[in-house]
Amino acid sequence: MKVVLRNPRRELEVPAPHSVAQLLTDLDVVPESVLVIRNDTLATHDERLHDDDVVEIRPVTSGGAA
Amino acid sequence: MKCRRCRAPAVIDVRRHNAGFCADCFTRHCREQVRRAIDDHEMIAPGQRVLVAVSGGKDSLGLWHLLRALGYETDGLYVGLGIGEYSDESGDSARAFAHEHGWPLLEVDLRATYGFDVPSGARAIRRVPCSACGLSKRHVFNDAARANGYDVLATGHNLDDEAAVLLGNVLRWETGYLGRQHPVLPAAPGFVQKVKPLVRLGERELAAYCVLTGIDYIVEECPMAAGNRHLGYKELLNEIEERSPGTKAAFLFGFLERGHERFAADAVEERADLHPCPECGAPTPADVCSFCRLRARATRVIPVAAENSA
Predict the structure, then answer these.
(1) Cβ-based neighbours of B309, under 8 Å, separated by 6 or more
(2) How far apart are the first and last CA of chain B?
(3) What is the pLDDT at residue B24?
(4) pLDDT tens sequence across B184-206
(5) pLDDT tens across B37-82, in order?
(6) How many angstroms separate the CA atoms of B156 and A57, rounded?
(7) What sign for the dihedral angle of Cα B223, B227, B233, B235?
(8) Which of A18, A47, B21, B97 can pair with B25 through a Cys bridge, CB separation 3.0 to 4.6 Å?
(9) CB-closest option in A7, A37, A62 to B203
């Protein structure tokens, strides 16, 4: 399964874990800080993943306080 | 996971509501949250002209889209901050969005209009870039809104932004800031009304709203914000939220309902001491306003012509 990470953009190949939640745990990503987009569609944390999926983990935290 | 409202397959889960939503119900949920924020805090009166500050990011473009969806005839304002490729891309994103929808977009370039940009301003005052950036944006937003006859300036501050600012203000007991921290900063001599209609939506919800409605926002973060204190507060709050969903909303809304009023007098006191800046006319408690002091130092230390030719 291909995983696309952002800021900076990079790609990983990993065996598909059981679910979106498990993928975030494996990558040590706080779920509240990202959206998960599987094959161009938003994915909920309980969704199952497959080896032919392309999954983008898109950060949602922006930095300006002003 | 099923949609809480219609039982169709969910596309987004929002843990603080302990709910999943399908795309249609989620966009409706976002509009309802903005509607409620506007009504609860009396942000926009009928007939008022509203200007939305847009950066090309998810929050501001999402806000503009939501306000238009709710029937507000809002225009956009983009401020060019001179932060290299990031500003080029964010400007392109804001312009493309405005063009796609046919909505008016005002533009102000900090360097062309005021003679400096955020990097040179930060160097001049020897502060972190976010400090020069925030100061400049606050001034230019208000200046542009007043000069173009708008009654209300709307910004894309969301629940996460406000909770992080609140945490920072509490940790340092900034009582004046706590008194001013509210979804509405009413109009006063020299100031248009400032409102934050996204205060009931988290930034994950805003990002999802943009993806689901096809808003092509700039995902890359400002390179100058990396590692700033505000981001650190957000990380801490997200870790707490993970263990105890709903904590960010309870922290912020609890403050607004039960804490804000206790500090309001400090903010009123600060506003009572304001007089027009002799350079630009903006209200200030000092001899010259902080934006004009920044501008004077930035244009003296790094002349525009010298930096352009470097």
Answers:
(1) none
(2) 56
(3) 98
(4) 999 999 999 999 999 999 999 99
(5) 999 999 999 999 999 999 999 999 999 999 999 999 999 999 999 9
(6) 23
(7) positive
(8) B21
(9) A62
Rg, Å, chain A Cα set: 12
The answer to whether B32 touches B131, Cβ cutoff 8 Å, is no
Other beta carbons within 10 angstroms of residue B228's beta carbon come to: 18
Please count the other Cβ atoms lying within 10 Å of the Cβ belonging to residue B257.
Answer: 9
**Integer CA distances (angstroms), B101 to B3, B61, B76, B94, in order:** 29, 11, 12, 11
Q: How confident is the model at residue A64 (pLDDT cuts 50, 70, 90)?
A: low
ipTM of the complex: 0.94
The model's pTM is: 0.94
Residues B182/B31, Cβ–Cβ less than 8 Å: no
Contacts 24+ apart (CB under 8 A), B180-184: B180/B267, B180/B270, B181/B255, B181/B260, B182/B41, B182/B256, B182/B260, B183/B37, B183/B41, B183/B43, B183/B256, B184/B41, B184/B42, B184/B43
- The residues pairing with A56 across neighbouring beta strands, listed in sequence order, are A4, A37
Mutate: best of B203, B217, B222, B290, partner A, most A CBs <10 A: B203
Q: CB of B139 within 8 Å of any CB in chain A? A: no
B19: helix, coil or strand? strand
Provide the greatest CA pair distance for chain A. 42
Distance CA A36, CA B86 (A): 24
Q: How far from chain centre, in Å, is Cα B229?
A: 17
List of chain B residues with pLDDT < 70 = 301-310
* Chain B residue with the nearest C-alpha to that of A57: B219
Query: Which positions in chain A touch B15 (Cβ < 8 Å)?
Result: 31-32
**How many C-alpha atoms does A11 have within 13 Å on its Cβ side?**
6
User: How many CA atoms, within 13 angstroms, populate the side-chain half-sphere of residue B2?
Assistant: 5
- Give whole-number Cα distances, B286 to B132, B254, B271, in Å: 18, 33, 12
Separation in Å, CA of A16 to nearest CA in chain B: 20
Q: How many CB atoms lie within 10 A of CB B59?
A: 27
Output the pLDDT for position B225: 87
CB B157 within 8 A of CB B196: yes
